[in-house]
Amino acid sequence: MSNKAPAAISDQYELWIDGEERSAGTDDRFTVVDPATEDTVADVGMASGDDVDRAVSVARDAFESWRSRPPKERVQVLTAIAAAIREQSEYLATVETMENGKPISSSRSQVERAARHFEYYAGIADKIQGESIPLSDGYVDYTIREPLGVTAHIVPWNVPIYLFARSVAPALAAGNAAVVKPAEQTPIGALELARVATEAGLPDGLLNVVPGFGAEAGAALTGHPHVNGITFTGSGPTGTAVAQSAVENVTETHLELGGKSPNVVFPDAEWEAALDGTITAIMTNAGQVCSAGSRLLVHEDIHDEFLDDLVDRAAALELGPGIDDYDMGPLVSADHLEKVQNYIDIGREEVGDPVIGGGRLDRDGYFVEPTIFDGVSHDTRIAQEEIFGPVLTVSTFADEDEAVELADATDYGLVAGIYTSDVGRAHRFARDVDAGQVYINEYYAGGNETPFGGYKQSGIGRENGVQAIDNYTQIKNVCANIDLR
């Protein structure tokens, strides 16, 4: 396959507002770069505050009609969107790989997850129900779940197509209208998904995309007085700023802010599964995953043998352009490459040279070698701070209590993994660890149906599963006195 962008990908994109491409209100534009080649993929219009205001206004108008349509119609539209995504899956996967750099097989998987997400919430759209509350014979009391209104979605660059679907699908299913601000590194997938959804029958104005930068488009969206709910996925500092902005308008906010997740391996683990799972946990998408298992905690009795085998696994990974489906692609941008390289330098100062990797490939693109640091103390920066790259820290533990203690020894609490054949131990760990999701004997277990979100500094709220509907609805209580005669 060629490393060049396919001809089907346009070299120029605008905003998507009210069911069509619309030029930004200014002449400002930015470029999307293929991280595997450093070539320009496309030129994109940059949304201003006025453009965001226009998108929110259009969404408000569209919401009033959408919320009153029978839920079965929302079912039909979301089902059609899922089918349309599948029909264009290869094209959408190519877009994701060209923007983000991940292997094309991974992009295909994420596009299918996006389709499944619309399909899943289509199945829920006509089952969003209230409850009857018993009071006394003289009253009838019940609740109604109603949509919020206009929801804002700040989508990150690491899994852009799936994470777009993860919040937009339940928002639409619940009867809301959406305005999406994709990451400036990966806006094309969001714009193409909006086109696909519109062509599949989504009414105009319900899904709007305002590409641009956080300081202008993002801030204008999250601080907009007519936005009724915000979903943000990204870094902790930016998430805090989003929450502070939202508080001024008393806007409901859901934050997914990343992690420093532990992956714990006991001596009775299934050896090959634990090795494969550890590599998957940190090297998937070049480590650019919020729930990456970036801290390996391995029992002291098996440390040496496990590390030797793990290094062999890492050394066998082949790096190259995602479009050619190598094991691992590049980092997303030059800026992110610099950040990851800085952390590797910090690791050398704190721990010493990595046991493998630590360098940049001598070629075009933003490629960093799979990197493993051993003997890492839990109080080092590389063990505490989210690197968001293919950088693994390794530490040892002596028993279950220490494993939990070390697993919890960060400000994050997004995910934790454990490998053991002792069912009781696995469930004791799941009970005691501070994490929003626990993987037992398989990292990245679960799916669209399983709620996802974090404890502590990893965020507020849950995505996926039926629980996500709570993010996009509000409860109205109705209490009727029926004894008036």
Please give the count of helices. 14
Mean pLDDT, as a whole number?
96
Beta-strand content: 15-25%
The order of strands across the largest sheet is 10-9-8-11-12-21
Tally of individual domains = 2
Name the CATH class of the largest domain.
Answer: Alpha Beta
Identify the overall geometry: globular
- From the N-terminal CA to the C-terminal CA, the straight-line distance is 79 Å
Q: Which structural class do the helices and strands define?
A: alpha/beta
Low-confidence stretches: 1-7
CATH superfamily of the largest domain, please?
Aldehyde Dehydrogenase, Chain A, domain 1
CATH architecture of the largest domain: 3-Layer(aba) Sandwich
Helical content, roughly? 25-40%
Quaternary structure: single chain
Secondary structure: number of strands: 22
CATH topology of the largest domain: Aldehyde Dehydrogenase, Chain A, domain 1
C-alpha-based Rg, rounded? 23 Å
Main beta sheet, described? 6 strands, mixed
Word description of this protein:
The protein has helices spanning 49-68, 71-87, 89-100, 104-122, 160-173, 188-199, 214-222, 236-248, 271-283, 303-316, 334-350, 381-384, 400-407, 423-432; strands at 12-13, 15-17, 20-22, 29-33, 40-45, 132-133, 139-147, 150-155, 177-182, 207-209, 229-233, 252-256, 262-265, 295-299, 371-373, 391-397, 412-413, 415-419, 437-440, 455-456, 459-460, 473-481. Helix content is 38%, strand content 20%. It has a six-stranded mixed beta sheet, sandwiched between helices. A six-stranded parallel beta sheet has the order 15-16-14-13-18-19, with helices on both faces. The chain has a three-stranded mixed beta sheet with strand order 1-5-4, with no helix packed on it. It starts with 11 loop residues before the first strand and ends with a strand. It is globular, with a radius of gyration of 23 Å. Mean pLDDT is 96; it is low at 1-7. With 485 residues, it is of the alpha/beta class. It has two domains: 12-257 and 459-476, 3-Layer(aba) Sandwich (Aldehyde Dehydrogenase, Chain A, domain 1), CATH 3.40.605.10; 262-447, Aldehyde Dehydrogenase, Chain A, domain 2.
